Amino acid sequence: MNAYATAAARAAFVDRRLAELYPRTPIPLAHRDAFTLLVAVVLSAQCTDARVNLVTPALFARAATPAEMARVPVAEILGHIRSCGLAPRKAAAIAELSRLITEGHGGAVPRTFAELEALPGVGHKTASVVMAQAWGVPAFPVDTHIHRLAQRWGFTNGRNVEQTEADLKALFPREHWNALHLRIIFYGREHCTARGCDGTGCEICRTLFPARKRAVRTRK
After folding, report:
1. In this structure, is the dihedral angle defined by the CA atoms of residues 92, 98, 99 and 105, taken in order, positive or negative?
2. Which of 69, 113, 132, 192 could join 63 in a cystine, given CB atoms 3.0 to 4.6 angstroms apart?
3. What is the pTM assigned to this prediction?
């Protein structure tokens, strides 16, 4: 019998193996504080972290606080981030969220999900990243890598990212969430990629499902 027949057994192995592979979990987006992290995460939607890290140094040299950013014209913000996907929408969102943080939160990035998600351009995933990485609040942001791997590893049926997040939170210890979501991303980029592994090729897929022969079709 496969030792990893249950989701709980698979989760325990994944948790342990990823901690061995990635004992350190550096935040991929370059930032200085909670505000610059928030802006970087907003920019990362439909854009690679590498691209975001190319455009943010000049942007943050121009404005690195909510009050400073609120004074920058949207067109100027757009000029800095034009190479990112959805740049016009993101530029407007960054300008407005900066104004709201300055006027409504005393210039401090909110520390609750509700207040973060009320800001323009900030959805649940973005809020989760800020809560986890800026404030240390346990959260499990689900990006495309996590959504794909959770299906390949039999942790969720992949109906949507909300269901994937709930299923992962039910399987893994709460105190591991913040590091684990980064570890899954690192592994998904390095080993279990969208094209490089179909659910049968990488170390973890082979270990968890040694008899699997067919590719895993993942839901978006």
Report:
1. positive
2. 69
3. 0.94
